[in-house]
Design a protein that fits this description.
The protein is mainly alpha-helical. It has 15 helices and no strands. It is globular and about 65 Å long.
């Protein structure tokens, strides 16, 4: 996925984010992130429309806060014994202001079809082989479903598949964690406390400062022409990509330290993507200005597809690099465990799809779709 971002574009983006992080480390009014963002944007000579860029930044930060809000709601519901599918059903009712069951069903079907397409794109990118392993429900199946929860459970299953595929895709960029980060800005800092605070937070109402600063840097890089793949991408989608990319090293760090189990790590990644999906549906359904005109399916496909994992992997691996070799190694160890688990899950899905093929065992062993061949 990383080849979607040219090496020079990646280097320039890392440089911009690095400069912003260090400037914030030395900033006097660190409690006022909006003021800091405005100050940064006003000083950037390469940004043509500073007013729009600042508005985009504020909208992106609101998107990350909304993902947090849905995530905390999901965690709370599960602690009270509520299932994910029940939470999703009630949340979609709230998002759509209790629109008709038919209308919600159309929304859920659009999400499911987008996830199927996206998951096939992810699998094809990983294997280098076109695939239709993941399939949408047939129209007759959709019409025959009387219980909306069945469709919502299908969406959750597809999100779970995407969580594994996205983690595997992003993790490819974490292979460089032990490479030296040749950026002069960090010479006077062993590790930035804003990044340290972020990595050590876990499933709490988070201090989003680090995510906000990385988002600021990414948007600045986009506006200055270093990230062409984001040229036509909505700001809320960019924020969701960054959130996804920064969640992986945080959870990988906790897993690598042995503070959570592998199942907890995978489940938390899954929960975060469910929360992000609801956020995108909410912004789209309520026709918020920075997502107006974009279909729910297209939004979901962009964030959880190859573009999303390219951007997410870039900012996530950058986070591991600035943490230094010791912390970076811990992050890499945790992520490797998630990847191995993900490949096992993908293997089961692909095997099921191949079950009717002749000489199944030999064919699958040689196939590029076999995760063991990636």
């Amino acid at each position: 996925m990383s080849d979607l971002i040219p090496p020079q574009g990646r280097k320039n983006t890392e440089q911009i984010i690095s400069e912003i992080l260090v400037n914030y480390q030395e900033y006097r009014d660190r409690d006022n992130i909006q003021h800091f963002c405005k100050d940064v944007i006003e000083k950037r000579q390469g940004i043509k429309d500073k007013t729009k860029t600042l508005s985009d930044i504020n909208n992106a930060l609101d998107t990350i806060d909304l993902i947090d809000s849905y995530h905390q709601s999901l965690i709370s519901a599960q602690e009270q014994g509520k299932s994910k599918v029940n939470w999703l059903e009630s949340t979609l009712e709230e998002i759509t202001d209790r629109e008709s069951v038919i209308k919600r069903g159309e929304i859920v079907q659009e999400i499911q079809e987008a996830l199927v397409l996206t998951n096939n794109q992810q699998l094809a990118s990983l294997s280098g082989e076109p695939t239709g392993v993941y399939t949408p429900l047939k129209e007759i199946e959709v019409e025959g479903i009387n219980n909306p929860r069945v469709m919502e459970q299908q969406v959750l299953d597809d999100i779970q598949n995407n969580t594994m595929l996205s983690s595997i895709s992003m993790a490819q960029q974490f292979d460089t964690l032990l490479d030296p980060l040749n950026i002069d800005y960090f010479n006077n800092f062993s590790f930035l406390d804003v990044a340290d605070n972020y990595l050590n937070q876990y499933l709490e109402p988070l201090d989003n400062t680090f995510k906000q600063l990385v988002t600021l840097g990414t948007v600045v890089a986009k506006e200055e022409g270093h990230l062409g793949i984001l040229e036509e991408v909505d700001i809320a989608e960019i924020a969701a990509m960054i959130d996804m990319g920064l969640t992986l090293p945080q959870i990988g760090y906790k897993l690598g330290k042995g503070e959570i189990t592998l199942i907890e790590a995978v489940e938390d990644l899954y929960d975060r993507e469910v929360a992000a999906t609801c956020t995108l549906v909410s912004l789209n359904t309520k026709a918020v200005s920075w997502l107006s005109g974009t279909s729910i399916g297209a939004t979901v496909g962009t964030v959880f597809g190859p573009i999303g994992t390219a951007v997410g992997g870039m900012v996530g691996s950058f986070t591991g690099k600035i943490a230094g070799k010791q912390i970076g190694q811990t992050i890499a160890t945790g992520i490797k465990k998630v990847v191995n688990f993900g490949k096992e899950a993908v293997t089961k899905t692909v095997k099921k799809a191949w079950a009717g093929a002749k000489s199944f065992g030999r064919a699958f062993a040689k196939s590029k779709l076999n995760p063991l061949n990636w």
